[in-house]
Amino acid sequence: MPLETEARAELRALLDGLRPDDGDLLEALHRIHHRYGHISREAMEVVAERLRLTPAHVYGATTYYADFRTTPPPPVTVAWCSGPACRLRNANGIRAAFEAVFDCALGEDSPDGRVAFTLGQCNGTCEQAPQVWLQERVVGKLTAARAVELARALREGEDPETLGWPDDASGDGAGG
Amino acid sequence: MAGAYDALRERADAAWEAWRHPERPRIDLAWDTSSLAAGAGRVREALEAQVAERGAAVDTGVTHGYGLQWLQPLATIHWPDGTRVLYGPVTPGRVGLLLDEAAGLVGAAAELAVGVLSGSRPGIPAIGEHPFLACEDERRLLKRIGHSDPGEIDHYVATGGYHALSRMLDRHHGPDAVRQLQQDAQLLGKGGAFFPAGVKWNFLAGAADEERYLVCNADEGDPGAWVNRVLLEGDPHVVIEGMLIAAHATGAIHGFIYIRNEYPLAIERMRDAIAAAEEAGALGANIFGSDFSCTLEVIAGAGAYVCGEETGLIASIQDDRGMPRIKPPFPAQSGVFYKPTNVNNVETYASAALVLEHGAEWYRELGTPTNAGTKIFSFSGDIARTGFMELPYGVAMDDVIDALGGATTRSGAPGALKAIQPGGPLAGYLPAGLSGSLTLEREAFAEHGALIGAGGIVFVGEDANSIELNLMFAEFLEDESCGRCTTCHHGNQRMTEVFRRVLAGGGRPEDRHNLEMVGDALQYSNCVHGSASPTIMRNTLRFFSEEFDAHVAAADTRLAGRGFVRYRVADQDDPRLESARLICPVDAIRGSPRGGYTLDETTCVRCGACHDLAPRGIARDDLVALAAARAVT
Description:
Chain A is an alpha+beta fold and 176 residues long. Helices cover 40% and strands 10% of the residues of chain A. In chain A, helix 2 packs antiparallel against helix 3 (41-51), helix 3 packs across helix 4 (55-64) and helix 6 runs parallel beside helix 7 (144-155).
């Protein structure tokens, strides 16, 4: 038996009500990801124990899905929409702008540990194209120039809550 | 038994009447993924603050947007006499206009008026007269969208919801009759495969095992498609009712609604609707007092496109990685937990509820002889108006393009179309020139080697690059391959490599043949993710042959793999060059207003930020077009 720790006890409590052979693995992973922002090796072991799966099985599932991280997330996440309507509006250039300012490739965290730059999938708000999700909020109608401004503000530690809101007067979105 | 439903209906009618004729004006904000993306959260804050500040005799409520997404955030003013008018875009700075209008200042918000949803209002046309809705006939699946609060089960019941279920359980329709009715209606699966729903249900009804499951496929992963999202967020109970009808018709005891994680509001609304339906006795044990019992649960996906394939979906539900497996056995023989299972799309279940309520003949009234009924479509890309509508199958593509306000360029100005990209990354890429002969039904697309898919259609303007779009889809397909079939994971990897190299300026004469070979191999993959992944590439080589060849012909080792897009200083007199220098994220632009500017091509990452700020001073060159022009002269 692995050593019982406070962290394990907390993980176990989080999985309350989940059972083996009941289709609960995704729910278990979501609960942990929601609480901790990532799924640690220890969490995978606790999930495996609870659902009577092997840790390897849980690891396989965790890493199969794009939405689960296995390392703690930076405080800010920018998800870049990769959908077609965005691509028709210079989404590739916008991606290059974020990568240059964050100094990391899509799918990586910035070296200063401040921002995660992740791949986002189209959610059908294409009237806002091209867009990113800043802390899960759509920042739409971007240009590469606005993307650079937004990325610089984030890199300089500005509060994401204050950034990227649509402009009141025009009803148009505005980044940065 | 009818008593349980009647009591629910009575309660619902009272609540509905109160909502339809409020004691004082009410402003209903569109509250859906699209309105939230447009900033509805801040609109609500501004509205509530102004109501408090003015002490306005106005209430606030919630509905789902009407489909005209480019006008989000949308809001409806609902007057005590039942008149309702749709307005948009309602930004935080404009809520005062709506409050004035609601309070009796007629015309205060006239500039934002979109159309009258109910009753009449001087000077504002009925919503049906809006050009965006010119191709629509009767809204059936969307009947409650924008006309009710999707969080209120009472609104669903008072507008006829759960009536078909109740009547069925009153033994007016046995399971056999219900399945036959779906066949008579010619209800075909709406997830893109067009398989007859009634026939599929027969498979499950005839299964050997008594423990049977239903799955609702709400893993709507096609980029550019949000048909299911609208139903899940806008009318969740119609999905529940459709699944209960299917459960009764097939003997299923439990259903899973598998919703992609990109739709958090849909997940929340469906979970709330399930709880409300259980409390109302419309779901769970002994539904409406009958001996029929069925439970439902929502499962949230976690970002895997291939879970939209039914066996991948089943694997994902039962704790495995979401990898499709080989068929047979089909889900009706061995599905979730190896028990017989029926998988349908969200819209198919919802349609089944309508068929049972209104009859097979009613369903077939709209559509074409081979494609009965209506379908929700979502339209995006280089068009003036982005949104969703419900159309009878068979509508002419040119009419749809007109309704969408015509084509636009990359910058949103009026333009011409290059291509039509239906149904996500597996379905096709057709030249806009075919639009005159294209109708919204599967045969019209199949004729050209494409699929119509699940309802998302993206329009591609003439200044777009088809090869870049091919690379985008190839990368998507490579990323999302589950990895089981070598043909698929390696084939899509190869396809990606070839397109990437061609776009980087390293195309080779044999690349067309390379791609064709990869396409031949891909089609032998187990599931449709692999077998259909060459569709867009094949359409491109067939219909956009010249564009592909031009990229290969323009190949040049001097480009050093930097591709065909080049930014350069074109006009030293543009005063905005200094701001272009400052915005460059890699300091590729150097110089000063006095000494002039240079742009270092080897440092440039081609983001285009400088061109955004100084479009005259910084030119964006397309080297393929330049090479082609040189070849002609």
